[in-house]
Design goal:
- By secondary structure, the chain is mainly beta.
- It has a single domain, classed as Sandwich (Jelly Rolls), CATH 2.60.120.
- 9% of the residues lie in helices and 36% in strands.
- The chain contains two helices and seven strands, in the order E-E-H-E-E-E-E-H-E.
- It has helices at 30-35, 106-110, and strands spanning 8-13, 18-27, 47-52, 66-71, 77-84, 98-102, 118-122.
- Helix 1 links the parallel strand 2 (18-27) and strand 3 (47-52).
- The longest helix has 6 residues, at 30-35.
- The protein is globular and about 35 Å long.
Length: 128
């Protein structure tokens, strides 16, 4: 799947025809996965972080809460965590192979539910 090699990705909930995020950074190696959102003060609306090979997350040292969408290898939603706060740990979602971290309220605003299908597309890099 070519999209997994792209640095910036767009995620759409194709089951509900809603955009989960216009611009997500693809954390696809040990260093970008380790850093994640650490050191950021907020996750702006429309942005996200995509973690490959992930079935659970922790919020250690984070400064703010997020929403998290867990996907299986076929990009079907297998788990959702809304408003996970700093220092919390999510449950491990059986079958999940990746996680999309989003601003709080994104899951509710897009009506995303377990079983929904997600589409990943290449996104343009952010303006500097």
């Amino acid at each position: 799947m070519r999209h997994l090699k792209d640095r910036y990705l767009k995620f759409t909930n194709s089951s509900r025809n809603t955009v989960l995020c216009e611009l997500s950074f693809n954390a696809d190696n040990i260093w970008t996965r380790f850093k994640g959102l650490l050191g950021t003060k907020t996750l702006p609306p429309g942005q996200g972080l995509y973690l490959n090979e992930c079935n659970g997350i922790h919020m250690f040292w984070m400064a703010y809460a997020i929403d998290a969408v867990f996907l299986d290898p076929d990009l079907q939603v297998v788990g959702l965590v809304e408003n996970i706060k700093p220092w919390a740990v999510s449950k491990v979602f059986k079958g999940a192979r990746s996680c999309l971290e989003l601003p709080v309220g994104t899951i509710a605003a897009t009506a995303t539910a377990v079983g929904d299908k997600v589409l990943i597309e290449k996104a343009a890099p952010p303006p500097h």
